[in-house]
Amino acid sequence: MREALDLLRDRPLVVLTGAGLSTDSGIPDYRGPGSPARMPMTYQEFVSGPDARQRYWARSHLGWGRMRRADPNAGHHALVRVHPDLLITQNVDGLHERAGSPRLVALHGRIADVICLGCRATSPRQALQQRLTELNPGFAERHAAVEVRPDGDVELDETAGFVVPDCRECGGILKPDVVFFGENVPAPRVERCYAAVDALAERGGALLVAGSSLTVMSGFRFVRRAAKAGTPVVIVNRGATRGDELATYTVDAGCSEFLGLLADQQTAPMPSR
Ligand SMILES: [Zn+2]
């Protein structure tokens, strides 16, 4: 861990975070060690018909209430002090925003936003939550004890009868404004991240991955890009990751602990560019 911290000291940084960062906020990492193998709903399944959407929104209705109650943890707060050039997160929980991180790309969107697949209008998830509560009285109370996943989904099999509203404007299908499996990250988002990673090579910077197993290509590609340019990569994660062979250092530690140490040694303001 010492070598990794020394390498990162006073360098321009791009930080990529994943579900492992939010576990200390009580949001379980479904790919972490000891987690059961579970598949989130794919985009194709979501648009396949009303049954899938009923299942999705019923579960989300329960998961949302709990995700909303989660607070940023020491790792989120430390990253504000680390002050990276760009913070890229695969998490949709909005906790970096709540902690106050500027220069943030929510790669997979935010579970707090809803988009209409018909007119593309976006709206707050909280407004939809009120409609779901009105349309499904007592549902949340009857299922108060189920388990939450990082995407705000929950384990639940009895969703028959759950009423799913459509877009108020056009009657279109409402979808959380997050990138599902089987869906691409919007290109401008990806380009902004690539640009920040590419800039590290010219400025002697480093890429730090915190709390991601890099299973999905949407995040792993930035590690490949950095490594190809000769930019040092440090990966902090509980358990092995797909990027380990490309990393200068891998640290098997908790994110909160490592990021706290990193922030402490980086209290001097970064020189301006
Ligand atoms: Zn619409």
UniProtKB/TrEMBL annotation:
Protein origin, superkingdom: Bacteria
Signal keyword on record: no
EC number: 2.3.1.286
Residues annotated to bind Zn(2+): 116, 119, 167, 170
Class of the enzyme per the UniProt entry, highest EC level: transferase
Keyword presence, Metal-binding: yes
Catalytic machinery residues: 108 (proton acceptor)
Pfam families membership: SIR2 (PF02146)
Domain Deacetylase sirtuin-type: 1-273
Keywords: Metal-binding, NAD, Transferase, Zinc
Protein name: protein acetyllysine N-acetyltransferase
Organism per entry: Nocardioides caricicola
Classification of source organism: Bacteria, Bacillati, Actinomycetota, Actinomycetes, Propionibacteriales
